[in-house]
Amino acid sequence: MDPYNSVVKKTAPTEALQAFVSEYVFRILTVPKHEPVVKAMPLRVMGSIDFFLGDSFETIDCNSNQTESFARCTIRGPRTHKKYIIAISGHFVSFTIKFKPA
After folding, report:
1. For the chain, how long is the longest CA-to-CA vector?
2. Are the C-beta atoms of 91 and 30 separated by less than 8 Å?
């Protein structure tokens, strides 16, 4: 049973974009305000553009331990180390375009 009422939908790109785009991911997660979910941003070999459409969340830089300003959209390159930790509470909604490595 899903305690956070999460929805994840993954969609393949149209044929014209398959050489560049790996997939589209739409995610909805509802987390009680008093029980935030803390998650390290994953390591991966692909870049992405991420849109955050729901409530704002806290982003913490792992090197400085400082809180970053919330951004509705981010462009992420490939990662080989853990750069950020996020603390999600409330209504989290994201849409991600994952690109193929080039």
Report:
1. 44
2. yes
Residue 52 pairs in a beta bridge with 94
Pure H helices in 1-102: none
Q: How far apart are CA 66 and CA 59, in angstroms?
A: 8
DSSP code of residue 83: -
- Rounded distance between C-alpha atoms, residue 43 and residue 79, angstroms: 5
Q: What is the mean pLDDT of each run of 10 residues along the chain (102 residues)?
A: 76 97 95 87 86 94 93 88 90 95 80
Q: What are phi and psi of 41, to 5 degrees?
A: -65, 130
Token pair belonging to 67: 């809180």
Amino acid symbol at 5:
N
Which residue in 95, 91, 82, 4 sits closest to 44, CA to CA? 82
Amino acid identity for residue 70 in this structure: F
